[in-house]
Write a structure and sequence with these properties.
With 299 residues, the protein is of the alpha+beta class. It has three domains: 21-95, Roll (Ubiquitin-like (UB roll)); 99-136, no CATH class; 144-291, Alpha-Beta Plaits (2-Layer Sandwich), CATH 3.30.70. The chain is 18% helix and 18% strand. It contains seven helices and twelve strands.
Amino acid sequence: MTMPHLKLVQLSRPTREPKRMIELTIDGRAVSVPEGSTILNACQALGIEVPTLCWLETLTPVNVCRVCVVEVEGARVLAPSCSREVEAGMKVKSRSERVDLTRKLVLEMLASSVDLSTSPGMAEMLAEYGAAPERFGECETVAQPVKVDNDLYVRDYAKCVLCYKCVEACGEDHQNTFAIAVAGRGFHAHISTEFAVDLPESACVYCGNCIAVCPTGALMSKREWELREAGQWDESKQTQTDTVCPFCGVGCTLTLHVQEGEIVKATSPLDNDITVGNLCVKGRFGWRHVQNGRTPSAS
């Protein structure tokens, strides 16, 4: 019996049409960016710095902080640059009297209602826009106690600006655990577990990806929190070393932060193709055995 002749067919990859380039003007400077880009993307292409709080390149924009607003010629209201897509011929002002006043007011209201002491770059931003949060008094948000209900990280919602980053990272954008969400409405809106249970009783898998995206320190690894409480946290004394997580074959990149011979936390680069800044519980906290009992053991 003879075998039938098999003909090999070489399959070609489908070709994609290159994206159309959109031309616009920002602060009087012409720029051309791919269709679908945001105003923020265009500003970054020109090296124009636009402040952000709720935006992160690995997350879906949620348009809640309004710090990144810009002025678009002909528009009635200011546009959130993190989500507003560019249009041909658009004329944008990244700084104007209207833009600066809006950013100032947003920063003042945030700083009057939450503790921004552990928000990187926030003090400089407040100074740049001449923000005076004390004129709004102090809201009840800052009076919340720190939630310490597990050995891995703490939740200090007195520092939460409701940027939704942790919800996005825990939800569809990354982890798909949905352990946390926004509860309440208006002034009573807050981040919470389901039925406000403690983390050990929730759906949380302790990946710590919410910590990685938090811009204010409202979510923080317990070791970092302990060192800060003791006045011993000092980033100027810390070194960072990239290595590969040894716990499985995925090959996630770990950035170990070391202070005075002690690993104080682990992160992962946002631009890493494997992790996109995310880790599992072993990658985020599994290094603690290296300390030989200097820190509480991970569960």
